[in-house]
Design a protein that fits this description.
Strand order of the largest sheet: 1-9-8-13-10-11-12
Number of domains: 3
Keywords: 4Fe-4S, Iron, Iron-sulfur, Metal-binding, Oxidoreductase
Cofactor: tungstopterin; [4Fe-4S] cluster
Oligomer: single chain
CATH class of the largest domain: Alpha Beta
Protein name: Aldehyde:ferredoxin oxidoreductase
Radius of gyration: 24 Å
Shape: globular
Structural class: alpha+beta
CATH topology of the largest domain: Aldehyde Ferredoxin Oxidoreductase,  A, domain 1
Pfam families: AFOR_C (PF01314), AFOR_N (PF02730)
Number of helices: 30
Distance between the termini: 61 Å
Helix content: 40-55%
Strand content: 5-15%
CATH architecture of the largest domain: 4-Layer Sandwich
Organism: Desulfotruncus arcticus DSM 17038
Largest sheet: 7 strands, mixed
Length: 713
């Protein structure tokens, strides 16, 4: 492929042998002065920070001060897999974690992603890549794991959007069709240039379809940081993949663990969630049936027409055996729609491959906007991905805009003529294109909900309390797509999470609301301790969450704690011990995560956040804000007033009932926060105690200094 390449800087290195899951070195790149060098991965890093998200937090902590902003040169992007990442014997072992300071939250963000980049980076000799500084013009960072060369290059390509860029760079650096499977590209499109919702697209080559596929590090604006640093792409090439490239301590142990899991998937997946046929889209009709899929900016949990976008995806997906985003993943949830003809935008008329849609995209672009058209969902899915825009943030942010439009807070004069009513697919799609181009009302929308709330109050005299109630964000991160009004535990999962309103820390709706397995505050607090720790652990080791509980053993319901899927936890004990040679227990897994989770909480403190006030949630995630919401479920809410408060709703106005219910529900949330803080070893202001830090071995002098400053405040 004839594309001009200008090499700016080169670094040659000796490719190390991977030892028990580690390359034992990190690649450091400074784009400002073109420094490229190697940093050692120490035993302390492996012991306490493990890998993945832990390594990202470790490096970022040392790179930034409490005054650093996301667009400052000293901010970094770190990508790391983890010691188990890259094994091929167990499903879901291809994850990478991206860590940076977030444009939307102002604090540290971590985002997990599939694709081949993380494993190929490790096998090329690097446990992590740490990128700092800003380039003068767009550059490609190329890691050649075959020759032991890293280069910073200027590559002349016109199109920055990911579906084009990833395809072109894969062909360029592969050199031949046979090598395309050995190349992975990280990129972000023009939407990441022009909004704070930028994502990173990680590529993998689909051999069956002869096509480049994309997976997203979606949350918190990682792609916006990437493009602000003028990185056009990261490219890694590695041709030497073998079944035991991780050089595990005990091959037989991880092999037997994997065989057991693959049999389970083959036998049970079709009887359980059908992940291999439906992917995460299997959740959509379930959430609709349980009144949990966000509709019209989270006002409701379902809609009579919701089935039009929740129920038919299995017929639109094309199947070629297992659709895994890393080798050996028999769960294969990475579904795809092929030959979709685009109806709008710069690629109108082209037939494209659409990766997804995932559940979050179906709910965010579909039901939450009151748009019940699966073609629109596909169109939005494709353009969000190629532009590098987070589908969750776009969906939740646009739902907020639509409610503000219908309430008269903003109008056509403000939106530039866009009629942003719920259900207007044409206007929503045009808004997406405007966000990507950085034009019109799209420039405002792409700032995110937190900034829009401030702007609408200051410029258009909107009631800031109402905006706070309906603006579905915590810590600046837009809500992922679950209605939490009837699940106090899930409200805490969003509000008390380190990075904001994302379900990857705790997804407790079914345990709490449907199964009533955690009835007391103490039960909920224990769940909000255990499950975030488990999910953190996946992100330390390069593992996907889905094989943990989206497929379960046949006798799982008969175990003492079925919600934890204990047999699978034993699998992870075997995997970690088998790869690293460091024997660990189930409690040891939790302790590893506790250290990182608490370190990240202190990181929030360092950046000016991390106290109780920042754990507050918008009231809509707790209860009904408007008369319309209350009256749509009047019997339910009236009964709650009677049962929980001894309040007789007879003869009361809806406004009076809303006020009474709100007082009760807000008190419940505060009591939950108290219980969770106590269980986590934090003060009642949400600050980890010195005793907690010492117990977890993260009582480093600079960590203690940050905590002491806040304890004395």
């Amino acid at each position: 492929m004839s594309i001009p390449r200008k090499v700016i800087a080169t670094f040659n290195y000796e490719i190390p042998a991977i030892d028990k899951g580690y390359a034992n070195q990190t690649l450091y790149v400074n784009l400002a002065d073109h420094t490229i060098n190697s940093k050692p991965v120490t035993d302390q890093m492996k012991d306490i920070f493990i890998g993945g998200r832990g390594f990202g937090l470790y490096y970022l902590w040392r790179a930034v001060t409490g005054d650093t902003k996301w667009n400052d040169p000293e901010n970094e992007i770190i990508i790391s897999s983890g010691p188990i990442g890259g094994i091929t014997q167990y499903p879901g072992a291809g994850k990478s974690l991206v860590v940076t300071l977030s444009p939307t939250t102002g604090s540290v963000i971590d985002s997990n992603v599939g694709g081949y980049f993380g494993p190929y980076l490790k096998f090329s000799g690097w446990d992590a890549i740490e990128i700092q500084g800003k380039a003068a013009k767009d550059v490609v960072i190329y890691i050649d794991g075959d020759t032991g060369t890293v280069s910073i290059e200027e590559v002349t390509l016109e199109d920055v959007n990911s579906h084009m860029l990833a395809d072109q760079l894969t062909e360029l650096y592969a050199g031949s069709d046979n090598n395309k499977k050995n190349v992975s590209v990280v990129s972000a499109g023009i939407g990441a240039d022009n909004s704070l919702w930028g994502v990173l697209n990680f590529s993998f080559y689909d051999l069956r379809r002869k096509s480049v596929r994309l997976k997203q590090a979606g949350r918190g604006g990682t792609g916006t940081v990437f493009r602000n640093k003028k990185i056009r792409a990261l490219v890694v090439k590695y041709s030497g993949l073998k079944g035991y490239s991780n050089n595990p301590a005990d091959k037989e142990r991880i092999c037997q663990t994997g065989i057991k899991m693959h049999r389970e998937i083959a036998t049970l997946d079709d009887k359980q969630n059908k992940m291999r046929r439906k992917g995460t889209a299997h959740l959509a009709p379930i959430m609709r049936e349980y009144d949990l899929i966000p509709t019209l900016n989270f006002k409701f949990g379902s809609h009579p027409e919701a089935y039009k976008v929740t129920d038919g995806w299995i017929d639109r997906f094309t199947h070629t055996g297992t659709d895994g985003c890393w080798y050996g993943c028999t769960l294969g949830c990475a579904k795809v729609v092929e030959k979709y003809e685009l109806k709008t935008g710069p690629y109108k008329g082209r037939k494209v491959l659409v990766d997804g849609p995932e559940y979050e995209t179906i709910a965010g672009l579909g039901t939450n906007l009151g748009i019940f058209d699966d073609d629109y969902v596909l169109e939005g899915n494709f353009y969000c991905d190629t532009y590098g825009i987070d589908t969750i943030s776009f969906g939740t942010g646009t739902a907020f805009i639509m409610e503000c439009y219908e309430k008269g807070i903003i109008n056509k004069d403000i939106t530039g003529g866009l009629e942003l009513n719920f259900g207007n697919a044409e206007a929503a799609m045009e808004l997406l294109h405007q966000i990507a181009r950085g034009e019109g009302f799209g420039k405002i929308a792409g700032l995110g909900i937190r900034r829009m709330k401030r702007l609408f109050a200051a410029k258009y005299q909107a009631d800031p309390e109402f905006l706070q109630d309906i603006g579905m964000e915590v810590k600046g991160l837009e809500y992922s797509e679950y209605v939490t009004k009837e699940s106090l535990a899930q409200q805490g999962g969003y509000g008390l999470g380190n990075k904001g309103a994302h379900h990857d820390e705790a997804w407790l709706i079914f345990m709490d609301m449907v199964l009533n397995q955690i009835p007391t505050f103490e039960d909920k607090a224990e769940a909000l301790h255990y499950f975030p720790m488990l999910r953190t652990w996946f992100g330390l080791n390069g593992l996907c969450k889905l094989p943990w509980n989206d497929i379960v053993p046949a006798d799982n319901a008969d175990t003492e704690e079925p919600e934890k899927v204990p047999e699978h936890i034993e699998n992870y004990v075997d995997l970690f011990s088998g790869v690293t040679g460091r024997e660990i227990t189930k409690d040891g897994l939790k302790s590893q995560s506790e250290a990182i989770y608490n370190f990240q909480r202190v990181f929030n403190l360092k950046m000016g956040y991390g106290t109780r006030e920042h754990d507050a949630v918008p009231y809509r995630s707790v209860g009904p804000v408007t008369v319309e919401e209350y009256e749509s479920r009047a019997d339910r809410y009236d009964q709650q007033l009677k049962d929980n408060m001894g309040f007789d709703p007879a003869g009361k106005t809806t406004a009076e009932k809303i006020k009474a219910l709100r007082q009760y529900k807000e008190e419940q949330y505060e009591k939950l926060a108290d219980a969770v803080y106590k269980r986590r070893g934090w003060t009642m202001n949400g600050i980890p105690t010195l005793e907690t830090l010492k117990r977890l071995r993260i009582d480093f002098p600079d960590v203690i200094e940050v905590v002491k400053e806040h304890l004395s405040a």
